[in-house]
């Protein structure tokens, strides 16, 4: 089980002070948060990709390349990379380069994005969103899997005997998570390729998340990659932690009430009861996170959102201390104890390289 954090990189006023960080300050804060994640023992840091204010992370591979040089163990990922508006050739080359720089500590989460104007900015039509996601990923897959690719599709000029460089490290491309909130076509795509499926369920009730994951698991088995229980699932979530729950609620409430993504709608109490948002003590976060198994089954990756809504850097780093010291060690132990035999570990580059080198008989026995 991998635990980590993901960021959307929003620049939001602190509602308790009215202070708005500058872009430079926010970007530097994201780097500090990522390095703190490794320091406290988390496994993954993932950054979103946005091209419009108030978000700053428009170039994830630049940020992750910097982090590759300043971390040793952290898996570097995205949440998400826009498979619809980015050129698949550029994604293939950028992430293969990043893979080499980070000695394999890289994976990729693809997504369609939720900002409509991004499509025309990159010469695309939002009405083609699903078709772009399907065609662009099919090309990306071939660019990584085949040394020489000849390609003709609907959305780009043909390729003739093209080789993407550098080639994936150890002939093993980055593991891919397909991120989707509500599109069954993307769950189907993840299942077809035997890739991972990530449901960022921070705004959705468990019943919806459960339906999407169940669809992915059933289709994963249909395509012959294993049993439904062996499908690779990741979940989102967001937490605010203090040693006691009263302090957590009191401190987080102004951020919730004024956050662009939360505020002026359901109350904090309503939102926490209907979504994975957990505001409370370490024990409450542990119990709530373990309950995700009830509708998602045994899964492989849990990412928390901790740095949004104008929360100051100091507060975010305190959240990471609590996650690393009091929450994640217990979750690791409990998830491991509960996991049935046959449910795979979270994918890593080293494990996938080793699996590729085993014979089919050895793989069955592994």
UniProtKB/TrEMBL annotation:
Record-level Gene Ontology MF annotations: monooxygenase activity; oxidoreductase activity, acting on paired donors, with incorporation or reduction of molecular oxygen
Superkingdom of this protein's organism: Bacteria
PANTHER family the UniProt entry points to: BLR5498 PROTEIN, LUCIFERASE-LIKE MONOOXYGENASE
Pfam family, one: Bac_luciferase
Record protein name field: 5,10-methylene tetrahydromethanopterin reductase
Keywords: Monooxygenase, Oxidoreductase
Upper lineage: Bacteria, Bacillati, Actinomycetota, Actinomycetes, Kitasatosporales
UniProt cross-references to InterPro entries, sorted A to Z: Bact_Lucif_Oxidored, LLM_FMN-dep_put, Luciferase-like_dom, Luciferase-like_sf
SUPFAM superfamilies from the UniProt entry: Bacterial luciferase-like
Example of a GO cellular component annotation carried by this entry: cytosol
Disordered: region residues: 341-366
Domain Luciferase-like: 1-294
